[in-house]
Description:
Number of helices: 4
Strand order of the largest sheet: 2-11-14-13-12-15
CATH superfamily of the largest domain: RNA polymerase II/Efflux pump adaptor protein, barrel-sandwich hybrid domain
Number of strands: 22
CATH architecture of the largest domain: Beta Barrel
Shape: elongated
Mean pLDDT: 84
CATH class of the largest domain: Mainly Beta
Radius of gyration: 48 Å
Oligomer: single chain
Distance between the termini: 109 Å
Order of helices and strands: HEEEEEEHHEEEEEHEEEEEEEEEEE
Structural class: alpha+beta
Amino acid sequence: MPDHKAEGEVQGDSAAGKVGSFPRRGWRLWLPVVCLLLVAGYFTLGRAQAPPGKPGHGGQGMAVAVRVAQARAKDVHVYLNALGSVTPLNTVTVRSRVDGQLLETHFQEGQMVDAGSLLARIDPRPFEVQLAQASGQLLKDQALLENARVDLRRYKELWEQNSIPKQQLDTQEALVRQYEGVVKTDQAQVDNAKLQLIYCRITSPTAGRVGLRLVDPGNMVRASDQGGLVVVTQMQPISVVFSIPEDNIQQVLAKLKGGTRPLVEAFDREQKQRLAEGHLLTIDNQIDPGTGTVKLRAVFPNKARELFPNQFVNTRLLIEVLHGALVVPSASVQRGPQGAYVFLVKEDQTAALRKVKVGETQLGESVVTEGLNAGETVVVDGGERLREGAKVEIRGQDGPKGANGPARGK
C-alpha cells in the first residue's frame, strides 16, 4: 500500500507539470503576433494623426518650398552644335628646288614669317660657274651672229649687182637664222643658271608659323627629297571644318543664298570658354553616306592665335533668331504621359499645372510656343513635390540669364 500511494503521488505531480507548462508554450507562440499588431497599430495611428499637407507629399496643409522664375519675352538665338577640327587654309612643306649643300638657315623654330621671307640658303657656287659658262657661250654666238648679218648685207649688194648667184645669198640668210637660234638657246641657258641661283635662296611661299627644322645646315639636299626643310602653316586667318546633319542643310543653304554669312563660334573641349568668333565660308558639295552629315568650313580671323592647327573644338552655328519668343528656364519644364507641363504659382500662393508646347532649348532656357503668357510665374525647383492646388512657399527667384556661354544643344 505505501508503494501505490507513492506511485500515485508521482503520477499526480507529472500531470500537474504538464498542465502548468501549456500556458508558457502558448505565450511564446503568441508573443510575436502581439508585437506585430502593436507596431501596425502605431503606424496606423501615426498616419491618421499626420496633417494632410505634410511637406514632401504636396498636400494642402503645409506649404512646399519652391524656387520660381517668370516667363519673359526675348530674342532667342538658335544654334547648331557640332564638333570641329581647326584646319589651316595653307600648309606648305618647304623643299629645295635645286641639288646642293645647305649652307645656313635664317629662321627660328616656331617663329612667324611673312611671305617671301628668307628661310635657308643653298651653296650657289656651282650655279655661278654654270652662269659664267652660259654667258660666255652667249657672247661667242652673238659675235658669230653679228658677223653673219654683216656678210648677209654684203651678199645682198653683190646679188643686186649680179656678182654672186642667188644660192649663195640664200645660204647666208639661212646661216643668220641658224645663229639667231643658237643665241636664243644660249640666252635660255643663261636664264636657267640665273634661276638656279634664285632657287639657292629658299623663301617662304606663305605667311605663317614655321615648324621644327627638318634638315640641319651642312647636309646635302636634293629637289627629289620628300621630307623637305621645314613646314610653314598659315595661322591668320584660319578655318574650322565641322559637320552638321543632312536635315539642316536647307537652313544653311538658305542663309548662304540670301547673301549672309552665318555667325560661327568656337569653344574649348569643356564648352566653357569661347575661343574665337568667325563666319561660315562654304558648304561641301556632297553628303557623307556613312554618317548622313555634310562638312562645312568656317573662317576665323584668329588675331590672337587662339586656334591652333588640328585642334578639336566645339562649334555652334547661328541659323535663326526668334524675335520676342517666350522663354522659361529649362528646369521648369517637366514631362509626363500627356506631354510637357509646368507648375504655375497663382496669386493665392497655390500651384496650378499647365500643359505647354516647347520649341527650341538653348543655354538652359526653353522656348514655350503654347500654354503660357509673359509675366506668369513658373516653378523652377521643387515642382516634383507639387500637385494641383498645393500650397507653395517661394524661397528664391531666378533672374534673366545671359546669352554668353556654350549651348547645350538643340
